[in-house]
Design a protein that fits this description.
Helix content: 25-40%
Largest sheet: 9 strands, mixed
Strand content: 15-25%
Domain Mur ligase central: 107-285
Number of strands: 20
Pathway: Cell wall biogenesis; peptidoglycan biosynthesis
CATH class of the largest domain: Alpha Beta
Binding site for ATP: 109-115
Number of helices: 17
Radius of gyration: 22 Å
CATH superfamily of the largest domain: Mur-like, catalytic domain
Structural class: alpha/beta
Enzyme class: ligase
EC number: 6.3.2.9
């Protein structure tokens, strides 16, 4: 009997275990941390053996195949031992894709991938397709393959998930953009991280499509030096194409295989230039899937956006509070500051992932009137911007951050939480950080 060992008992791990059991594998789940009660209940219900707070080597090193959760680095001792024994270590996406005939749309990028994934899913669902949503978002892909019967999946794929693919390929791939992120997992080499993102297209054939940001230096550079078999569909804010998506005269124009779609940019519900890019990428998919133009227009004008991503919380005394907690790197915060049109009180800070704040400098000079540092160690932010803004305050909890911001902000200003950092110093995750921000604003 083939033996599947799952490392990590979270959403992707439990989903993989259920699918493995259904497909006749002998399954064992091992988590070095604690497994949440709700997942233990599921594993017990399916009679899947599990352990927590340890990795028992004899029960792991006898695997036929190992599914490693994306959060576990390849440097971890147990993974190294598996590599030494030549046991394949794959991602949930790789494992699950073997057991479904569904076509997948895979979406990756340093920023914008969640919004693009949600918007693509929204367009296809509104267009009447039988479509599931998974990957880095919502219910695990493997779990859905085990229990649902979708014809299409829209999958948000992180670089960690792509690192664990061998044969998987999406019929349509999107790379929204690439900027330095998670470099601690890639030996601090940017080129390794770029290479990881491009794994999304490595198995694609000439029947498949790669939709990409033609304005992005890292993407263009890779495409100049490497080859993909997929048909290329570029999108851009500054260039025009015979085959691709672009903006001309305040109109989003998308031409694919001689089919043209046009829509005034003002009618797209998402705000900001970066969101026009996300909209162009998602609409390119909808056109490839032959969704009716009228449906695409309606869907683009009624899409609600993603929680914790430039989410308008409340307007109090004519000050707009915006929750952009999902901005966990500098590039995401660049987009946020770039789309601000009023003087901004900026709440920033957290766990720094090797950030370089220099690229934010022109935007901070132009738009930011005060900075509130919300982190345990704010030295880098203070050093970067201390001389640039009139006021800088350090706090160590969300309530103080929001209260301070409300005292500084004047009528017509914006208070923006866009941390540019991970959240683990003071919060469980970026969702917890965003929820605390919203609660503190509602309590003002």
């Amino acid at each position: 009997m083939k033996r599947l060992v799952v490392l990590g008992g979270g959403e992707s791990g439990v989903g993989t275990a259920i699918l493995g059991k259904k497909e006749g594998f002998d399954v064992f789940v091992s988590d070095f941390g604690k497994i949440k009660e709700k997942y233990k209940d599921v594993l017990n219900k399916y009679e899947i053996r599990w352990e927590e707070e340890q990795h028992t080597e004899p029960l792991i090193l006898n695997a036929t195949v190992v599914m490693k959760s994306p959060g576990i680095p390849e440097k971890s001792p147990i993974v190294k031992k598996l590599f030494e024994k030549g046991i394949p270590v794959i991602s949930e996406i790789e494992f699950a894709s073997e057991f479904t005939k569904a076509k997948t749309i895979g979406i990756t990028g340093s920023n914008g991938k969640t919004t693009t994934t949600m918007l693509t899913y929204h367009l296809l669902k509104e267009g009447g397709l039988n479509v599931g949503l998974g990957g880095n978002i919502g219910k695990s892909f493997a779990w859905q393959v085990a229990e649902e019967n979708y014809e299409y999946y829209v999958l948000e794929l992180s670089s960690f998930q792509l690192d664990g693919i061998i044969k998987y390929k999406p019929e349509i791939a999107i790379i929204t953009n690439i900027s330095p992120d998670h470099l601690d997992r890639y030996e601090y080499k940017y080129e390794n991280y770029i290479e990881s993102k491009f794994r999304i297209t490595k198995n694609q054939t000439e029947e498949d499509y790669l939709i990409y940001d033609a304005d992005d230096e890292a993407i263009s550079g890779w495409l100049r030096q490497n080859k993909t078999n997929a048909k290329l569909i570029p999108f851009s804010l500054t260039q025009t194409f015979e085959n691709g998506a672009f903006i001309k005269n305040e109109t989003m124009d998308i031409i694919i295989n001689n089919e043209e779609f046009e829509m005034k940019t003002a009618e797209v519900s998402l705000e900001g230039k970066h969101n026009l890019k996300n909209a162009m990428a998602a609409t390119s998919v909808a056109q490839l899937m032959k969704i009716r133009k009228e449906t695409i227009r309606e869907s683009l004008s009624n899409f609600q956006g993603v929680e914790h991503r430039l989410e308008k919380v409340l307007k109090i005394q004519n000050v707009q509070y915006i929750n952009d907690s999902k901005a966990t790197n500098v590039n995401a915060t660049f987009f946020a500051l770039d789309s601000m049109t009023a003087p901004t009180v900026w709440i920033v800070g957290g766990v720094d992932k090797g950030n370089d704040y220099a690229e934010l400098m022109p935007l901070v000079r132009e738009k930011v009137k005060a900075i509130i540092c919300l982190g345990i160690d704010n030295k880098k932010i203070v050093d970067a911007f201390g001389n640039v803004v009139d006021m800088m305050v350090e706090v160590d909890n969300m309530r103080d951050a929001v209260n301070t911001a409300s005292h500084i902000a004047e009528k017509g200003d914006v208070v923006l939480l866009s941390p540019a950092c991970a959240s683990f110093d003071l919060f469980q995750n970026y969702e917890d950080r965003g929820k605390q921000f919203k609660a503190a604003v509602q309590n003002l």
